[in-house]
Amino acid sequence: MTRTIRALWNGELPLAVAFWRYAIVWGLVINIATSAMTLVAVLADAPVWILVPVYLLPTPYNILVLVGVFQSAARYEGPRKWADLARLVTVVEMAILTAT
Predict the structure, then answer these.
(1) Going residue by residue through the chain (100 aa), what tens digit of pLDDT does each one get?
(2) Can you give the pTM of this predicted structure?
(3) How many CB atoms lie within 10 A of CB 36?
């Protein structure tokens, strides 16, 4: 696990893996799960000191994925348009997922 996180952070994973597996699939799963947890906490009238950390829980993952996709895109040897598109989609996705 630690090796995978380090490889993602350093851009050592292929761009397709960093983007599709970690940004799209796991990004959606983790952010939807924490959004559901936040909703449950709100409905349970949880205090703010519980709501804020639960809401911010996926932020470190989102930052990791954003850095990882940018690093992998920098090493990508295919057409630049795919690397640039992966960067753009990841920025937009992580911004939306972090805000919701």
Answers:
(1) 799 999 999 999 999 999 999 999 999 999 999 999 999 999 999 999 998 999 999 999 999 999 999 999 999 999 999 999 999 999 999 989 888 7
(2) 0.88
(3) 10
